[in-house]
Design brief:
By secondary structure, the protein is of the alpha+beta class. The chain contains two helices and three strands. A hairpin with a 3-residue loop joins strand 1 and strand 2. It is globular, with a radius of gyration of 11 Å.
C-alpha cells in the first residue's frame, strides 16, 4: 500500500538534515506551498523533491 500511495503523490516535502518525509502531494505547487508554510511556522530546512518511490 505504501508504494501505491507514493506513486499517487510523487511530490514530497522533506525536513533536512534528518531526511524525514513530512507530507506528499500530487502537484508540485501544492508541495511548495506547504513547504513555504512550514518554513514560516517552524524553524527548519525543508526541500521539495519529486520522489517516485522506486
Amino acid at each position: 500500500m505504501e508504494q501505491y500511495q507514493t506513486k499517487l503523490k510523487p511530490w514530497a516535502v522533506f525536513r533536512l538534515p534528518n531526511n524525514i518525509c513530512v507530507a506528499r502531494f500530487r502537484r508540485r505547487s501544492d508541495a511548495e506551498g506547504h513547504a513555504k508554510a512550514l518554513r514560516h511556522f517552524v524553524s527548519a530546512t525543508y526541500e521539495v523533491i519529486f520522489d517516485q518511490g522506486t
